[in-house]
Design a protein that fits this description.
Oligomer: single chain
Strand content: under 5%
Helix content: over 70%
Shape: rod-shaped
Keywords: Membrane, Transmembrane, Transmembrane helix
Radius of gyration: 26 Å
Distance between the termini: 86 Å
């Protein structure tokens, strides 16, 4: 029984580098998505602060 399990994992062994590459690509893509969302949120905050900090008396 145990030898069948070891043979099964030995058969899957060539796939481990592909899994590693796939997980690293997925990690990079998710990191870039999070950074893009963060930049969008920060730009929205900056726009709202920019509108509030301006003096209304300056607009004539």
């Amino acid at each position: 029984m145990m030898s069948n399990i070891f043979e099964f994992f030995y058969m899957l062994y060539p796939l481990f580098p592909l899994l590693l590459i796939g997980f690293s690509i997925w990690g990079v893509i998710s990191f870039l998505k999070i950074q893009r969302q963060r930049n969008i949120i920060l730009s929205e905050i900056a726009k709202s602060l920019e509108g509030k900090s301006r003096n209304p008396e300056e607009d004539t």
